[in-house]
Amino acid sequence: MASTVLGSQSNRAPLGCGGTGDSHHGFGAEQSAATASMSFTSLSRGRKVALSTLGILVAGGSSLAFALHQSVKASELELHPPSYPWSHSGLLSSLDHGSIRRGYLVYKQVCAACHSMEYLAFRNLVGVSHTEAEAKALAEEFEVLDGPDESGEMFTRPGKLSDHFPKPYSNTEAARAANNGALPPDLSYIVNARHGGEDYIFSLLTGYCDPPAGVTLREELHFNPYFAGQAIGMAPPIYNEVLEYEDGTPATMSQVAKDVCTFLKWASEPEHDHRKLMGLKVLLISSILIPVFYYMKRHRWSVLKSRKIAYRPPK
């Protein structure tokens, strides 16, 4: 048995009559178009006018419905937050960990009175914004209900690193009763849960203003153009010098809002810095491996992939 291995540049025998499949496909498409054209032209004049009128009415009605839908959308009455130049928004930029530490202080002294962060534990602060000793001291400031003990009774103890941030209310009913029926949302993933992310949170915190002429709000509501419906039950939570930073940073309204937004960004994406670091490593390794794989594909594997084996029976 004799066989011959031919390279990728060998001439191959044509299959069937040259190009008949493509010509038949083109002929079929032209025939279909001609048939459709003939079917419309064969209609009577009255039917042509009726179909044309129907098409115009459908197109006009669709355009009118879309225009009316856009004009009455409630979201268009809201003020969209601008895009702020966050220090962590760059491709290789990390979060400002000093701002995370200050942001936790803002949450603790301002936000924690109404909002919970039930998915965040004190141990998550270690190595990010606080040392282990500092995080332990923060946890021990709170009394945690634990138990039951040996006698079956519940007891309180100082907090530990494994404990989650304490909730301001025992249940949702108590939270609504204390806030005029409004339920303060949990802030653990609030940045990812709101369209606009930290831009929206920053704009909401700093966007309180007097309602325009003709707008009347209930006594317990406040005007905020960035909130859905512009009427929000939360009073302005921050203002200049609302607290004092331990590192001496001036506690202006914009600085406080920026710090708490950075803290909430980290809470929503604790893997933020690690993800970008891994992405940088992947880019560096890929810049080395991709040329190697291209060379192997082009000069090694392509010869095996495109070769042709022909069998020639013995004479």
From TrEMBL:
<keyword id="KW-0479">Metal-binding</keyword>
<dbReference type="GO" id="GO:0009055">
    <property type="term" value="F:electron transfer activity"/>
</dbReference>
<feature type="binding site" description="covalent">
    <location>
        <position position="114"/>
    </location>
    <ligand>
        <name>heme c</name>
    </ligand>
</feature>
<keyword id="KW-0472">Membrane</keyword>
<keyword id="KW-0408">Iron</keyword>
<comment type="similarity">
    <text>Belongs to the cytochrome c family.</text>
</comment>
<feature type="region of interest" description="Disordered">
    <location>
        <begin position="1"/>
        <end position="21"/>
    </location>
</feature>
<keyword id="KW-0496">Mitochondrion</keyword>
<keyword id="KW-0813">Transport</keyword>
<feature type="binding site" description="covalent">
    <location>
        <position position="115"/>
    </location>
    <ligand>
        <name>heme c</name>
    </ligand>
</feature>
<keyword id="KW-0679">Respiratory chain</keyword>
<dbReference type="InterPro" id="IPR002326">
    <property type="entry name" value="Cyt_c1"/>
</dbReference>
<keyword id="KW-1133">Transmembrane helix</keyword>
<comment type="subunit">
    <text>Component of the ubiquinol-cytochrome c oxidoreductase (cytochrome b-c1 complex, complex III, CIII), a multisubunit enzyme composed of 11 subunits. The complex is composed of 3 respiratory subunits cytochrome b, cytochrome c1 and Rieske protein UQCRFS1, 2 core protein subunits UQCRC1/QCR1 and UQCRC2/QCR2, and 6 low-molecular weight protein subunits UQCRH/QCR6, UQCRB/QCR7, UQCRQ/QCR8, UQCR10/QCR9, UQCR11/QCR10 and subunit 9, the cleavage product of Rieske protein UQCRFS1.</text>
</comment>
<dbReference type="InterPro" id="IPR036909">
    <property type="entry name" value="Cyt_c-like_dom_sf"/>
</dbReference>
<dbReference type="Pfam" id="PF02167">
    <property type="entry name" value="Cytochrom_C1"/>
</dbReference>
<dbReference type="GO" id="GO:0006122">
    <property type="term" value="P:mitochondrial electron transport, ubiquinol to cytochrome c"/>
</dbReference>
<dbReference type="GO" id="GO:0005743">
    <property type="term" value="C:mitochondrial inner membrane"/>
</dbReference>
<keyword id="KW-0999">Mitochondrion inner membrane</keyword>
<keyword id="KW-0349">Heme</keyword>
<keyword id="KW-0812">Transmembrane</keyword>
<dbReference type="GO" id="GO:0020037">
    <property type="term" value="F:heme binding"/>
</dbReference>
<feature type="transmembrane region" description="Helical">
    <location>
        <begin position="277"/>
        <end position="296"/>
    </location>
</feature>
<feature type="binding site" description="covalent">
    <location>
        <position position="234"/>
    </location>
    <ligand>
        <name>heme c</name>
    </ligand>
</feature>
<feature type="binding site" description="covalent">
    <location>
        <position position="111"/>
    </location>
    <ligand>
        <name>heme c</name>
    </ligand>
</feature>
<dbReference type="InterPro" id="IPR021157">
    <property type="entry name" value="Cyt_c1_TM_anchor_C"/>
</dbReference>
<dbReference type="GO" id="GO:0046872">
    <property type="term" value="F:metal ion binding"/>
</dbReference>
<protein>
    <recommendedName>
        <fullName>Cytochrome c1, heme protein, mitochondrial</fullName>
    </recommendedName>
</protein>
<feature type="compositionally biased region" description="Polar residues">
    <location>
        <begin position="1"/>
        <end position="12"/>
    </location>
</feature>
<keyword id="KW-0249">Electron transport</keyword>
<feature type="domain" description="Cytochrome c">
    <location>
        <begin position="98"/>
        <end position="194"/>
    </location>
</feature>
<dbReference type="InterPro" id="IPR009056">
    <property type="entry name" value="Cyt_c-like_dom"/>
</dbReference>
